[in-house]
Amino acid sequence: MQRQRQLLFGMYMDAMRMDDVIERCRAALSTRRPILLGVLNAAKIVELHRNKVLRESLLECDLLLADGQSVVWASKLLGKPLPERVAGIDIFTRLLFLAHRDDRSIALLGAKPEVLKEMRRVIAERFPGLKIAYSHHGYYEAAEAGQIAVDIKASGADMLFLGMTSPKKEIFLGSYGSSLNVPVLHGVGGSFDIIAGLTKRAPPAWQKAGMEWAYRLLQEPRRLWWRYLKTNTSFVQLTAREMLHPARAFRFVANRNVAPVRSRIPDAQLRSIADE
């Protein structure tokens, strides 16, 4: 399959459908050549323009996909269409089915301990026999990240899912992804909470209408109203700017404090991971 990419908001995004993504993941499992998945929604596009670490970690992804319907609509408005929304949680669910069917093992990193425990129970119920080779909550100290990476590699997992917020999950994947020997790596954000039943996902009609954010806002109005107002306004402004002056592709900048995320990890720590 020939790879098609679109330059949007300074990032090269992959114009792929869900089935294409799953096929790429299946190929990675067969060849044991790691594939790092990244997803972009409106909030992350706004944030990456001011957060260099998040931006660098996204630049290291092998596939960068449209997680938000608003990103798909913007791509069409800008004349660089993406075929469909490929939501992170939908990739997660499809890959769980794949792991269960093909007898693959998974690793889970993220969420609170009690949420992770409940999600493990739900997965065991929905996918009986699916092997969870490793799991760890997401509330660890930065100094623990290296050992967590070592343990993930030692588990021999075929897929790693990270249920953490941005940019924490992107930083972990960008820092350690290539050293884990895990073929499929995917940051799934708040999907752990949804699978565990802590958060309700919007009905399909709301998702199709691009109003999933509004459904979540109804669940937590006090906490989220200002965030969504600010983010959505900024995204509209970025889209208008993109129409007039398309952004150039972001690149790593040598000899400045914006080196690739992996280079910020001490060499000795990286070697210890690679040699395990």
Task: Give an overview of the whole structure.
The strands form two sheets. The protein has a six-stranded parallel sheet, with helices on both faces. The chain has a two-stranded antiparallel ribbon with strand order 1-2. The protein is 50% helix and 14% strand. It starts with a strand and ends with a helix. The radius of gyration is 18 Å and the shape is globular. The protein has 276 residues and is an alpha/beta fold. A hairpin with a 2-residue loop joins strand 1 (5-8) and strand 2 (11-14). It has 13 helices and eight strands. Mean pLDDT is 87; it is low at 254-276.
**Can you list the strand order of the major beta sheet?**
4-3-8-7-5-6
| Helix/sheet category | alpha/beta
| Spatial extent as radius of gyration | 18 Å
Low-confidence stretches: 254-276
Quote the beta fraction: 5-15%
The major sheet is characterized as: 6 strands, parallel
Anisotropy-based shape: globular
> Could you estimate the helical fraction of the residues in percent?
40-55%
SS element count, helices: 13
Number of strands: 8
Order of helices and strands: EEHEHHEHHEHEHEHEHHHHH
Overall pLDDT score: 87
N/C terminus separation: 35 Å
